[in-house]
Design a protein that fits this description.
- By secondary structure, the chain is an alpha/beta fold.
- The chain has three domains: 3-15 and 199-296, 4-hydroxy-3-methylbut-2-enyl diphosphate reductase, catalytic domain (Cobalt-precorrin-4 Transmethylase, domain 1, 3-Layer(aba) Sandwich); 17-98, Rossmann fold (3-Layer(aba) Sandwich); 102-194, 4-hydroxy-3-methylbut-2-enyl diphosphate reductase, catalytic domain (Cobalt-precorrin-4 Transmethylase, domain 1, 3-Layer(aba) Sandwich).
- It is built from eleven helices and twelve strands.
């Protein structure tokens, strides 16, 4: 007789509108221009997605200088790129399609406008994450100060008017703590009109928060280099399920540990295909009698248009 297990399945989970759009851009570019097409950096942070696009004819590179055939198009990833990247493509006469998520582009425009108005700018984000590199690369070197923690706020000193922007995939709660600390130290600091943390990050974290306390273990399906997936693991731990972990490419479900549970929670990062979630459930079903309760905290209807080059 198989042991019974209840899975609380978080919804929304998985692909967001920016990821859907980026993957669609690669597919449509291949349809329109034939293969190969180059993609600078992983289009989204998921190995399965990258491998499936490689099979269709996408070649993944880290820098424009790696392009061996300048007659082929190059696509910039959903995370956004520094200004120097499209400039380099133009100099080399390489046709490019920009798959930057529109919500990341919004942050880019905000930083440029703040800079033009004479503000000093603080970016709350994770050092070396491609989105942060892209946002900082919108302005001349040294124009944006990156901070990662509340402690770093103590060392900040500014003479000009100050404004902040944030990476779109951060922990909502951790970021609020940093923003609150900034506001205490700099009461006149200017924030974005609409929050920079994207709707999908916020929604996925809210869904995990709602169910974590009911779960003995919590699993997030996503890649190790996916910021939003890593944040979901942190959110699950802070919301009452200490035994939370990331299930990344090649990592098997820890069935022996799961067999000791009556309830587990499950969600996936914004760049993880739903198929990986279903495969994880199917793996558990081989050993246990599974019932699933989907906990829906929001209905997402956001769709982003494709770039005009592909219409």
């Amino acid at each position: 007789m198989k042991k019974e297990l209840k899975i609380f399945l978080a919804s929304p989970r998985g692909f967001c509108a920016g990821v859907d759009r980026a993957i669609e851009i690669v597919k449509k570019t291949l349809e329109k221009y034939g293969s190969p097409v180059y993609v600078r950096h992983e289009i989204v942070h998921n190995k399965n997605v990258v491998e499936s696009l490689k099979k269709l004819g996408a070649i993944f590179i880290e820098e424009i200088s790696e392009i061996s055939d300048s007659t082929r198009p190059v696509i910039f990833s959903a995370h956004g790129v520094p200004k120097k990247v499209p400039e380099e493509a133009k100099i080399k006469k390489i046709f490019y399609v920009d798959a930057t998520c529109p919500l990341v582009s919004k942050v880019h425009r905000e930083t440029e406008q703040l800079y033009k108005k004479g503000f000093d700018i603080v970016l709350i984000g994770h050092r070396n994450h491609p989105e942060v590199v892209g946002t900082m690369g919108q302005l001349p070197n040294g124009s944006i100060k990156l901070i990662e923690t509340v402690d770093e706020v103590k060392n900040l000193n500014f003479t000009k008017p100050l404004a902040y922007v944030t990476q779109t995939t951060l922990s909502v709660d951790d970021t609020k703590e940093i923003i609150d600390t900034l506001k205490i130290k700099f009461p006149n600091i200017k924030g974005p009109i609409k929050e920079d943390i994207c709707y999908a990050t916020t929604n996925r974290q809210a869904a995990v928060k709602k169910i974590a306390a009911n779960c003995e273990m919590f699993f997030i399906i996503g890649s190790r280099n996916s910021s939003n997936s890593a944040r979901l693991v942190e959110v699950a731990k802070k919301s009452g399920c200490k035994d939370s972990e990331l299930i990344f490419d090649g990592k098997k479900a820890p069935i022996d540990k799961i067999k000791n549970c009556k309830t587990i929670g499950l969600s996936s990062g914004a760049s993880a295909p739903e198929e990986l979630v279903q495969n994880f459930i199917a793996e558990i079903k081989k050993d246990m009698q599974v019932s699933i309760e989907e906990v829906i905290t929001a209905n997402e209807k956001v769709v982003f248009k494709l770039p005009k080059e592909l219409n």
